[in-house]
Amino acid sequence: MFGKVKDPVCKKKIKRAEAVDTSEYEGKLYYFCSKDCKDKFEKNPSKYV
Ligand SMILES: [Zn+2]
User: Fold this and answer.
1) How far apart are CA 32 and CA 41, in angstroms?
2) Which residue among 20, 33, 35, 36 is least crowded, i.e. fewest CB within 10 A of its CB?
3) CB of 42 within 8 A of CB of 8?
4) What pLDDT digit, counting tens, does each position of 1-49 carry?
């Protein structure tokens, strides 16, 4: 995996170090490529996990 994570909102694969923002949901940490993706996720996290 070498630090690659998937943005659950736009499904883009990003490097952990490149993630603009993160959010914790049900004990799991999610990484986002943009603030926009994070906002969408936080409005309705169950839609994306
Ligand atoms: Zn994204």
Assistant:
1) 9
2) 35
3) no
4) 568 999 999 999 999 999 999 999 999 999 999 999 999 999 999 999 9
